[in-house]
Every structure is written in C-alpha cells, then in structure tokens.
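Form 7-S
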Amino acid sequence: MTLFFLILIILASAILGFIILVQSPKGGGLAGNVGGLSNQFMGVKRTADFIEKATWGLASAIVVLSILATMFINRNKGTESQTKIQNIENAIPADQVPSYPTNVPEPNN
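Output:
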C-alpha cells in the first residue's frame, strides 16, 4: 500500500512541477502568453485561477498522501541489518567467543 501512495506522490509532484513551470513569476504565464488560445478557451482570468487552484490542490494532495503513506508503514519488523545483527549475537554465547591471543611474539625486522 505504501508503494501505491509513493507512486501517487511522485505523479502529483511531477504534475505540480509542470504547473509551476507554466506559471510566470509576474502573473503572466500561460494566462497571458499563449497567443490568444487562452482567451478563446477559458479566458485569461479563468486560466490563471485554474492554475493557482491546481497548484494549491496538488500541494495539499502531496501533504495528505505523505501522511497517509506513513500510516501504512509496517513498524513491527526490524530492518534486514538489525535482524542479521540479532542473529549473530544469538549465534555464539559471549562466554564462548574466542578472545584475541595476547602472547603472540612480534615479528623481527
């Protein structure tokens, strides 16, 4: 289920990035620079309103999807490395672990 939310978040982020790139920093953007197409289709004001609402809607959707994704993360299982460490610790009792020999002669150079 987390993978499903991850895919939705990535898709919403890509669409949000595209919508932000379409906007102009001074308010022109798609609403004013399409060469009259926006006037024929929805009008300048409606296009700007749609883009702004889509930006806020997608940003909100990403936040909500992120919160929902955290609810489905399985926290009962340890990670694979934690499991391996626990298996190693339980495999040999501490009193049977060989210690490093201290009476090893040093090599002559």
